Amino acid sequence: MVDNAKWFRSIYPPEFYKHTVAMKLDDQIMTRLSTNARRNYRKAKQAGIEVVNDNSQWGIQEFSRLYRETMNRLKARSGYYFRDNYYRKIVEQSLGDIYLARYGHQIIGAILVLKGKVYLHNHLTCSDHRYAYLSPSTIINIEVAKWGAEHGYSYYHLGGGVSEGRDGLFHYKKSLNKLGELNLYMSKKIWNPLVYDRLVVESGGLDAAGSFFPAYRGR
Questions:
Q1: 181-186 and 15-24: which strand pairing?
Q2: Torsion sign across C-alpha atoms 78, 79, 81, 82
Q3: For residue range 31-81, what is the model confidence (pLDDT) as tens digits?
Q4: First-to-last C-alpha distance (Å) of the chain
Q5: How far apart are CA 208 and CA 188, in angstroms?
Q6: Residues 219/206, Cβ–Cβ less than 8 Å
Q7: Four-CA torsion 184, 96, 136, 74, nearest 10 degrees
């Protein structure tokens, strides 16, 4: 993940896509937080928020519910929605874990984390906007990073912003590691142009010359 684009230059020439952020997983996680992130973490802990790993059917349903509510609130594109079976397969195949932020009897935040051999990746995040003042995503991300450090993982990739620039979401993620900015590269290859073009047409005739790839997922 880190600086691996150079290994693909002779196969799939990589193109710079956007900036992302990763947390290095060691005993210095807390020292690399911004002042604001550290304060929000302490505030959530003092409020009694508990972060739990729950891969049960109930945990999957709670994640699905809160994620769907979050996407509805943000008026997200259809490509950001997934069926429950998608989450279930990730968990059942040990490809990822669900982490929930519990505040009393309420689930106020959740993250689906993908697991590799040495890397963790924040795949999907959601939260209850009524508890935004407690910043549930911050405490979950930090607790996941601590868990990763304790279990031998090297980095926890948080991703980037919504846009290709350094937007508000990017700056929030960077607050979790002031030194964690990375460059994300992408390679684009169409192996079967006939099938690709058909998918573009079936998805609504999107502009294949646009910047989003693959074009049939641009909505």
A1: antiparallel
A2: positive
A3: 999 999 999 999 999 999 999 999 999 999 999 999 999 999 999 988 889
A4: 27
A5: 13
A6: yes
A7: 60
Compute CA distances 76 → 31, 131, 146, 161, whole Å. 34, 20, 30, 14
- Continuous H helices in the chain: 35-46, 57-74, 84-92, 136-150, 168-174, 193-202
The per-residue pLDDT for range 122-151, each reduced to its tens digit, is 999 999 999 999 999 999 999 999 999 999
Q: CA 149 → CA 1, 65, 136, 155, 165, distances in Å? A: 17, 29, 20, 8, 29
Q: What is the DSSP string of 14-64?
A: -EEEEEEEEEE-STTTGGGS-HHHHHHHHHHHHTT-EEEE--SHHHHHHHH
Say how far apart CA 202 and CA 209 lie, in whole Å: 16
